[in-house]
Amino acid sequence: MANESILIVDDEQDLCTILTSFLEKKGFNCHACHNAAEAVEYSKSNHIDLALIDLRLPDEDGITLMKKIKIFHPDIAILIITGYSDVKTAVSAIRLGASDYVSKPLYTDEIYQSVEQALEKKKQPSASEKKDKNKNSPSSKKSKSKKTPKKTNINKDYVLGSSEYSKTVFDHIKLVAPTDLSVIISGETGTGKEVAARLIHQNSKRKDQNFVAIDCGALPEDLAGSELFGHIKGAFTGALNDKMGSFEVADGGTLFLDEIGNLSYENQVKLLRAIQEGEIKRLGSNDNINIDVRIIVATNEDLSKLISDENFREDLYHRLNEFTITMAPIRERKEDIPEFADFFLQQANEALNKEVKGISNKAMKALNRYEWHGNLREMKNVIKRAVLLCNDEEIHEKHLPQMVVEYIPDPPEENFMNNLPLDLKAAAMEAEKSVIIQALRKVGYNKSKAADLLNIDRKTLYNKLKNFNLATD
Length: 473
Ligand SMILES: Nc1ncnc2c1ncn2[C@@H]1O[C@H](COP(=O)(O)OP(=O)(O)OP(=O)(O)O)[C@@H](O)[C@H]1O
Description:
This protein is α/β, with parallel strands linked by helices. The chain has three domains: about 5-125, Response regulator (Rossmann fold), CATH 3.40.50.2300; about 125-135 and about 145-325, 3-Layer(aba) Sandwich (Rossmann fold), CATH 3.40.50; about 330-405, Orthogonal Bundle (Helicase, Ruva Protein, domain 3). Helix content is about 45%, strand content about 15%. The protein has helices at about 15-25, 35-45, 60-70, 85-95, 110-125, 125-135, 155, 165-175, 195-200, 220-230, 245-250, 265-275, 305-310, 315-320, 335-350, 360-370, 375-390, 400-405, 425-440, 445-455, 460-465; strands at about 5-10, 30-35, 50-55, 75-80, 100-105, 185, 210-215, 255-260, 280, 290, 295-300, 325, 360, 395. A five-stranded parallel beta sheet has the order 2-1-3-4-5, sandwiched between helices. Strands 7-8-11-6-12 form a five-stranded parallel beta sheet. Helix 19 (about 425-440) packs across helix 20. The longest helix has 19 residues, at about 425-440. Bound molecules: adenosine-5'-triphosphate. Adenosine-5'-triphosphate binds near residues 193 and 298. Adenosine-5'-triphosphate (ATP) binds near residues 158, 192, 193, 195 and 377. This is Sigma-54 dependent transcriptional regulator. Keywords: ATP-binding, Nucleotide-binding, Phosphoprotein, Transcription, Transcription regulation. It comes from Mangrovivirga halotolerans. Pfam families: AAA_lid_14 (PF25601), HTH_8 (PF02954), Response_reg (PF00072), Sigma54_activat (PF00158).
């Protein structure tokens, strides 16, 4: 039976009551706060294993609160609660250290599963703990090659994607994997950069050694140096023991540095030295430690822009840029959607112990039309929720979020005014259409709310949507 402590932070009192009572029945100790200030006070003096935080709180946003709570509880698991139209922000919360997000309306089974998964992930020892343990165990003198590799069933973990684009990407992965070249993988969030990095490692001669993934975006700046290079006892206040850094843990294997653009200038210098000279120094020590690590980095920023703004060192960029892979957003490789959707459906069936057989044509059309700004991560979550809600043979539109079913592609923003037709009536219609689309997006495609916002009645909105060919039903 679970005994972990959960902090719930949401201004909706009813929701807190429901979640508290449900999670306490599952054996958790729960405490609810209704705003950020209360939550910070509570977290200063109470033990918390996991926090469920609403993205929108009356006094502060959920991400800022997450960062504050992490100061008192660095290892805490965080689940962000979001409205569907906030998914983009929720996805960036993951980059900043949240374990996952759950979107409203909330379903208790889904919450329970996400809570269990986040706590499970938190319990797994970090790579450095594993390596430290190996070091101290009686078998630590065994040569590295005798270490049991982590078993991964590649075909179960990923799909290739059937678009020409994806095929080329995987050809490039196969090409670069056996070499020792450093690789930059760029692409929007959720496009599969980490999956690609793991594939490179698994297909390299280093595959039996560690693959260590570090998210530079989630690392507080003052901890980043110690996380990467380790420290010796007394190096700084709080350094109570010697600690191995990721470079040492990854020795012989691959170090994956996600969100490399977030690394401080000082750590960029140390990283360059480590790559060029094959040695590092733990913080507080003068001893050089030889390391043999392959570096793969990922970024969703334009590194050349960071260089011209003097936020990223050009010499480091050139050292890293021995091979580049770009993961295109899903909306630019829509042929991949059915294959990924089916893969995530099977994954969700397995995780939720369900037997949903497929996705109806209409639902698949909606998946194809939607633009997936959170890319594969967002699609995986949408399909998992649809499987959870589905008691039919197939996923139908009713199982998908309204935002996905009723999605209308982005209106052209650039030079909108300049591109309006010179016929006044036609121009007015274009402008009206654009405002309607913006209103619908703002309220997550809820037509009643959009009509309110536009100051018209629901029926007028329906008629306008029909006239503009925007109606989906
Ligand atoms: N080829 C693939 N096959 C199956 N699942 C995939 C594939 N690529 C990505 N995914 C899934 O999509 C989600 C996002 O992938 P991943 O973490 O690799 O993206 P990312 O680009 O590194 O994201 P971020 O920039 O936010 O760190 C993960 O749950 C991953 O398992």
